[in-house]
Write a structure and sequence with these properties.
There is one protein chain. This protein is an all-alpha fold. It is about 60% helix and about 0% strand. The longest helix is centred in the middle third of the chain and has 73 residues. The protein is rod-shaped. InterPro entries: CEP126. One of its GO terms (cellular component) is centrosome.
């Protein structure tokens, strides 16, 4: 048993060192007459060529990786731009929907004096006097309250205020005599 131990242990008594010593690749035997320096030169040349090919392969892989990285970055930018456009379109649609809903609400909740009636258009005389359809006296029977005497008088007198004015209808009827 002690003989086996000494047989498989290394120089320092380490068993792993002995195993690795046996597993190390041994140099190939040189042919007779081969120059020792020439063999080293060939080995250096092979090592240099191997390093060149390894560097070329690494450079190729690096260039390919950079190309893929740039392509991925371009795709991300394109997706970001499309996402931003989609968000802007959604926000614009929401803004329009809110605006339309606001207008519908305001139209539905107008006071009766502010409602635009289909048959009511301002006359040219009222427009020139600066009066709009909402400020003139309504002729519709479903008014909320009956007009006061002052409102009726100002409506009959027209835009010129309290100046005494005789209507053209009254002046044409004044020549009519009764029987």
């Amino acid at each position: 048993h002690t003989q086996l131990r000494t047989r498989y242990t290394g120089r320092n008594g380490d068993a792993t060192a002995a195993v690795t010593h046996f597993l190390r690749p041994r140099p190939l035997p040189r042919p007779p007459g081969a120059d020792y320096e020439g063999g080293l030169e060939d080995e250096r040349q092979l090592l240099a060529e191997e390093q060149k090919s390894s560097r070329a392969r690494a450079r190729k892989f690096s260039m390919e990786t950079n190309r893929r990285r740039r392509a991925l970055e371009e795709r991300r930018k394109l997706c970001d731009v499309q996402e931003q456009r989609r968000r802007e379109n959604i926000l614009l649609q929401r803004k329009q929907q809110v605006q339309e809903a606001t207008e519908r609400f305001q139209r539905a909740h107008l006071s009766p004096s502010q409602r635009k009636r289909p048959g009511q258009t301002p006359t040219p005389a009222a427009e020139s006097a600066g009066l709009n359809a909402c400020s003139t006296l309504s002729i519709f029977p479903f008014r909320a309250r009956p007009p006061t005497i002052d409102e009726a008088l100002s409506h009959l007198q027209g835009p010129f205020g309290s100046q005494p004015q005789q209507s053209s209808f009254l002046s044409s009827n004044s020549s009519i005599t009764r029987y």
